[in-house]
Amino acid sequence: MSYSITDPSPRQKWFAGxxxxxxxxxxxxxxxxxxxxxxxxxxxxxxYPPKVIFQPSLEGYVNLFTTRTRVSPDDLAALPPPANxxxxxxxxxxxxxxxxxxxxxxFMNSVIIGFGSTFLSIFLGTLAAYAFSRYKIPxxxxxxxxxxxxxxxPPIAVAIPIFLMYRTxxxxxTHLGMILLYTAVNISLAVWLLKGFIDEIPREYxxxxxxxxxxxxxxxxxxxxxxxxxxxASTAIFCLIFAWNEYxxxxxxxxxxAQTAPPFIPTIIGVGGLDWPAVAAGATIFLLPVMVFxxxxxxxxxxGITFGAVRK
Amino acid sequence: xxxxxxxxMAEATPQPLARKVRGLSDRAIAWIFVAPTIxxxxxxxxxxxxxxxxxSFTNFxxxxxxxxxxxxxxxxxxxxxxxxxxxxxxxxxxxxxxxTIFFQVLIGFTLAWLINKKFKGNDLWTTIIVLPMMxxxxxxxxxxTFLYQPQIGLxxxxxxxxxxxxxxxxxxxxxxxxxxxxxxxxxxxxxxxFVMLICxxxxxxxxxxxxxxxxxxxxxxxxxxxxITVPMVMPFLMLAVLFRGIENFKMFDLVVQLTGGGxxxxxxxxxxxxxxxxxxxxxxGYSSAFAIILFVTVFGLASIYVKALNKVxxx
Lengths: 312, 315
Hints:
The structure holds two protein chains of two kinds.
Chain A: H1 10-38, H2 42-45, H3 59-65, E1 66-70, H4 73-78, H5 85-91, E2 95-100, H6 103-134, H7 140-149, H8 155-169, H9 175-199, H10 203-211, H11 216-227, H12 229-245, H13 248-253, H14 261-264, H15 276-296, H16 298-311
Antiparallel strand pairs in A: 1-2
Helix pairs in contact in A: 1-15, 3-15, 6-9, 6-12, 7-9, 9-12, 10-11
Chain B: H1 5-9, H2 15-20, H3 26-55, H4 75-82, H5 84-115, H6 122-134, H7 137-147, H8 154-163, H9 179-204, H10 208-216, H11 221-249, H12 253-258, H13 270-279, H14 284-314
């Protein structure tokens, strides 16, 4: 191994590393706190000083998934013994489980709308990106700029007419409506990212395929698509994360059947505002997949974030 | 975006080959591929925008669709520009924009510079720092209200621990003085990694030989930093500022969960004010005009900024 004169000295590296790790640990604290609060009992979660060491409990998770009602001690004593651990936790608080909560449904809505809109934006985005990459299209630069500029609009600015439009078309509070909306928001990013990836695939591959008697279309999906797979996958993750996290449209356009998790989770807190463990449990279930994804796929993701800056 | 010669050369299927290709023509495929995207954007972005412009000249109220709609010319715009509430929300937005960008650039650049010292395990730590920006701002913002609770909140406890103050003596979200800073802190926590990543890309794009040459010329490290590192990262940094500026001008989810615009209207940013006018007071015409003013402002500022950016890049 050769040393360059510009290489930082071991001491500099050690110093830089310490500072960065310190910042990382501070930045991680709120996230660790979410995770921990999910496993606390409600009294533990609001104790002073804040408890770092505590008896773990699943009460938050039980409260997250159930709706409960308070019963009098006499009625409670008359009940048969609890059938499972969830019943037992709830009865310790003088309550009984009366049914499931809406969290499962809202979480599924997030999954359906997230994956649906990601699939659609990747499908349409790949086609458009291929055409922009390979063909002469009149006003190409203007169209590409137009596609990008749609991202500058504040969501609330278009929310008013979309709200009216959806009300007329019967799309408000439907999965289809939200999927179309998120696709429209995501597609500009998808086209730009994917065009970059497809630009990097040499045209000679397709031309060889054409000479072998493939149609243009066959050349596209048998030669170009497999080559662009990595790029498509990392673009898909960006689209999915956006749709997963989106709040403004979700809170304005959905209220029931198609409501996603972000507008729902803050409402878990309930009467009195004391059930932070349940909120934290919901947040953990909702945020953890994204964190795991980010860490596992860091190479592709980090490249994607800086993509726009690096190419220009 | 510069076009590479290869792109230009191979713009379409070479002529002799094109004649032999079976199936749809290039032109047909190009249009079939592009049309759905353009159509979707027209339907969900451009059409609503035109509709908003149209609504902004009326006194329409969305909660009373049967009332007769009157065109009232520029009166909505007049009222907005003289409305003191709107100016207060613009002030709140300006405060939020300025300080979030200030802190994010400062911390983001420093972190990128440290990470670029290439210490062992730097990519894993980079990823951990990036985590907050990948998460849902609404869900995270909601949880921060818990961290900010006086007495029981972790944030207050930590601050009290280091300063010796009483943790229940200050309310980050409830006080008129502190709330504007509370939202700046959370936004900085969340989005500094974005500025950091872009700066890091900039630092990594500087070829080593420039530093080697400077080293041979015996330029001091301090001088190298100001004459090589800073100017070469500047275009990247400005781009990061542009993205953060646009995003924070539109800021809604995080702050609405943190403070809902309060206390009073101290943290009522433009988007939150707009939401209140449009979906709580149902002044649809009025808020459409406000939406257009916001959009024109973002677009105008962004275009001026991009011009400045291009000048820096050309240098």
